[in-house]
Design a protein that fits this description.
The protein has helices spanning about 1-25, 30-40, 45-50, 55-60, 75-90, 95-114. It is mainly alpha-helical and about 110 residues long. The longest helix has 25 residues, at about 1-25. The N and C termini lie far apart (about 60 Å). This is VPS39 subunit of HOPS complex.
Length: about 110
């Protein structure tokens, strides 16, 4: 029984920390927000959904956030994108995408040679 309550407590703490990261993002404290999301292992698509036009509209509509997302444009959006790049690098997404791209690119050329 104690394990269940400990697990539940950890889930609540994790949820609260995600809310904190979201709040930091809404306050436009992008670097801090991304650091918290990275520590929590938050799903990268959920983080990318915070940004306009990074995910397909239908997919983005399925994502739920505790409050409306802040409007971002100009220098603010650029700062937010830089923080996202750092986050994606930290969680290994960019590296995995590059590996996949390299594999697909080399496979394409191998097939083209035949």
């Amino acid at each position: 029984m104690k394990d269940d309550s400990d697990s539940e407590k950890q889930q609540q703490i994790h949820h609260i920390k995600n809310l904190y990261a979201f709040n930091l993002f809404c306050q436009k404290r992008f670097d801090e927000s991304m650091q918290v999301f990275a520590k929590l292992g938050t799903d990268p698509t959920h983080v990318m959904g915070l940004y306009p036009d990074l995910l397909p509209t239908d997919y983005r509509k399925q994502l739920q956030y505790p409050n409306p997302l802040p409007g971002l444009s100009g220098a603010e959006l650029e700062k937010a994108h830089l923080a996202l790049i750092d986050y994606l690098t930290q969680v290994g997404i960019i590296e995995r995408c590059m590996e996949e791209f390299t594999w697909e690119f080399s496979t394409f050329f191998l097939m083209a040679e035949n």
